[in-house]
């Protein structure tokens, strides 16, 4: 009778280990999905921050008193630097193939603008 109880206890322990392994695998999958979503968000925030910070730094430099700059060329420099910084950052982050929506959708939007 003791061996029957021991065998039952052993099966219960094995079942508990299997359940814990399944739960652990499920948690790992959920954690991976969350990490991927956060990575996408961080990449796009990097692009947005670069687009804001580069011209902001230039505007700070141009805003120093006693620097007589003509706004005729300051504004184009700010616009050009914003565009270049955004393009470089986008190209750099594009190597990770992280797009906020699928690449097929992005290609369709691109085709619409080409027409």
Mind explaining what this structure looks like?
With 115 residues, this protein is mostly helical. The chain has one domain (2-114). 84% of the residues lie in helices and 0% in strands. It is elongated and about 100 Å long. The chain starts with a helix and ends with a helix.
What would a concise description of this structure say?
84% of the residues lie in helices and 0% in strands. The chain contains 3 helices and no strands. The N and C termini lie far apart (83 Å).
Mean pLDDT: 77
Please state the overall shape, judged from the principal axes of the Cα atoms.
elongated
Extract low-pLDDT stretches.
Answer: none
- Strand proportion: under 5%
Helix content: over 70%
Number of helical elements: 3
Q: How many strands, what sense, and barrel or not for the largest sheet?
A: none
Number of strands: 0
End-to-end distance: 83 Å
Helix/strand-derived category reads: mainly alpha
Give helix and strand order, one letter per element, not per position: HHH
What is the CA-atom radius of gyration, in angstroms?
28 Å
How many discrete structural domains? 1
Helix and strand topology:
Blueprint: H1 2-62, H2 71-94, H3 103-114
Helix pairs in contact: 1-2
